[in-house]
Amino acid sequence: MSSSNENSLSSSRIWKAMKKGMDVFKRGTRWSLGRDSNLRFWYDSWTSNGPLRSIIYGPLTREEEEIKVKDLASIDGWNWGKLSLILPPKIFLEIQAMPRSHFANEEDRIISNATANGNFNLSSAYILANGEAPQFFDGKWIWKLKVLPRIQSFIWMCFHNSIATRERLASRGLQVDTVCPMCNLHPETIIHLLRDCHVAASCWQSLGMGVLSFDFFSLDLRSWLANNCKTTSASNHLQISWIVIFAVGIWALWSHRNRVVFKNMPSSQAIHRDIIHRAVEYALVAQSTITKQPRIARNIRWERPNRGWYKLNTDGSSLGNPGMASGGGILRSESGTWVKDFTRKIGIATSFVAECGLLGMGSTCV
Ligand SMILES: [Zn+2]
């Protein structure tokens, strides 16, 4: 069946919905390289930037047009000499960091472009469908915080920008006034309510600016929550950890706001005292926040490989996740004698990919 106007053709609801979502699907997926990858180097989407030809201009010979990933990649590295165009540094570093061992044992496969681990999930698809840039989010640490479960849930919702402040409600189409009910000056965003509003700001200063970082009032919401929930600092109050003060603090500010909005109660000037009181009460009940767990000394030392074997130790890191990554390794014999070592700039990669890449590099340098 053919028609000059494709949209006039009769089709099922499912097919119509699939066509509607095709653009989101294309933006949200890419190929993960497999063994002897048959993907076209320029025209298939296999980097985080989509097809390379859509972002790199310049003439290509017919031979270059048809070049495949497997023509450039080998276990020893990338053969850049076959390309006449120079790749932008960010893309070059991303490709450079793809460990060859990654695509040594499986076929090309489609993965999600909107999550850090490549697995599909509905929330990342929803963000893409709304036209927003994907945000890689790892919030598992929230569930390890030693605070009340309801505060953990509250922090989780803050991370997902889903606390029902007036600005959030308006962004979902509700007809509400977005002005902050506490100061009547600024839009009530989550970061405004919990930090920047003068009610919150004076509360945090009363709680002890001495332990706060210099960028406390300038970080974005996620960094602000993560930094304060991961710090090892003690607060000024009975050596209770700052994490407890902070977590109780944001919860108390939210509760206080709701009392003002929904119960018409007057705004309190002494929220910080209530926070200290609740934090002390929690810390006394949950002893572990005051009494540090005794440290157990454990000897960590290099152990010899079995007779006739060599041992390769590697370590790598990335500045950001993903970010510029580098690392190195050392190869030793069964007697512990140095055999070989190496250091490498890996490119732009996650710390996990960097660690895997080093293992591959180490095994090939032997
Ligand atoms: Zn305000």
Task: Provide structural commentary.
This protein is of the alpha+beta class and 366 residues long. The protein folds into 3 domains: 10-129, no CATH class; 147-285, no CATH class; 311-365, Ribonuclease H-like superfamily/Ribonuclease H (Nucleotidyltransferase, domain 5). It contains 13 helices and 7 strands. It has helices at 13-28, 62-65, 69-72, 89-96, 122-129, 149-159, 166-171, 190-196, 198-208, 221-230, 242-262, 271-285, 351-365, and strands at residues 29-32, 73-74, 77-78, 109-112, 311-320, 323-332, 338-349. The strands form 3 sheets. It has a 3-stranded antiparallel sheet. The protein has a two-stranded antiparallel ribbon with strand order 1-4. A two-stranded antiparallel sheet has the order 2-3. A hairpin with a 2-residue loop joins strand 2 (73-74) and strand 3 (77-78). Helix 8 (190-196) crosses helix 9 and helix 9 packs across helix 12 (271-285). The longest helix has 21 residues, at 242-262. The model has no long low-confidence stretch (mean pLDDT 81). The structure holds zinc ion (ZN). Zinc ion binds next to loops.
Order of helices and strands: HEHHEEHEHHHHHHHHEEEH
For the biggest sheet, the summary is: 3 strands, antiparallel
User: Average pLDDT value?
Assistant: 81
Bound molecules: zinc ion
Q: Radius of gyration, Cα only, in angstroms? A: 27 Å
Class inferred from helices and paired strands: alpha+beta
Into how many domains do the coordinates divide? 3
Distance between the termini: 60 Å
Pick out the low-confidence regions: none
Q: Given the structure, what is the number of helices?
A: 13
The proportion of strand residues reads: 5-15%
Helix content: 25-40%
Annotation, overall tally of beta strands: 7
Shape, please?
flat
**Adjacency order of strands in the biggest sheet:** 5-6-7
